[in-house]
Amino acid sequence: MPRKKFPPKTAGSRLISAFPIAKVGDNIAVIERMLTEKADDFQTIDYVYVIDEDNALKGVISIKEIHSSKKDAAIEDVMTKKLVFAHPLTEQERIVYLALSNGIKSIPVVDKQKRLLGIVPFNVILNVFNEEVREDTFKFGGIFHKVGKEYTTIKASASTMIKTRLPWLMIGVLGGTITASIITNFENVLSTLLALAAFAPVLAYLSDAVGTQSETLTVRSIALDPKLSLKSYFLREFAVAIVLALVCGALLSTVALFGWQDLILGLIVGVSMFLSVIAAVFISTGFPFIFKKVNLDPAVASGPFATMISDVATMTIYFVTASLLLVQFGLM
User: Fold this and answer.
1) Among 50, 243, 292, 304, who pairs with 142 as Cys (CB 3.0-4.6 Å)?
2) How far, in Å, CA of 331 to CA of 272, rounded?
3) 20-42 pLDDT, tens per residue?
4) Alpha carbons 85 and 83: distance in angstroms, whole number
């Protein structure tokens, strides 16, 4: 299958074909001679990949292992048969994960019949890692543009940086406006219990912090495992959210209770914090899956967009909870 047919940012688009290959049945002496004679033809010499007569990948052996093995040893007796490999359409981020998690320098790429198509070498893996880290760093800050030498924060023009940053900051302005209108609509609640105003920034910060953690983990998990189960992941995150919400709610409630000597304030703050953290986790976990479902980059769900939704949800929960409890206790 020609390389040009593979989509960009996949293993197939990153593979090379000039690397050491041995056949099942070859011995170490034959392989060493091949490495010496053809060294200049290879783009990389980290491993020798072993194939059978059908070109199916059967094993791999490092250059160090070759030189430490007996000359008359058959390659199938000393090669590693537990293989780590990728398919042509495997996302390039997955390639980086496979290399780092298994401590190997290159990843073989095979088709459905496990026939060896090529490998993704170490220098390409490093380049992909660098590209993905820069791209994700920009996206988490709400900056969406190409990643390349001409697009770095050092070399990009002022107009380019403005065009890539301003649109998403406008979403932040929209979110701030909505949040301000929510607070305005609950002026009667604030006038009844003014101390509520002191805790609004704390709730917003903590829910944002928890949400950012969830976004980061979810986006990374989806990138590393495109077939990640929505149900099982949500169940795990729900359990995590409950514990985080209980701890944050209890701590903030205790601060309000002892710092302001107000039981009702402590109850309002604690319940609001509990509900806000759970909402933040679900918002931050859900958006990446939604974006993935509609074939958009899940990382777009991060940064200012998710922060805006989380802030609006937090303030709504806070003041609705305050209104209900103040009415319940006969203070409104």
Assistant:
1) 304
2) 18
3) 999 999 999 999 999 999 999 99
4) 6
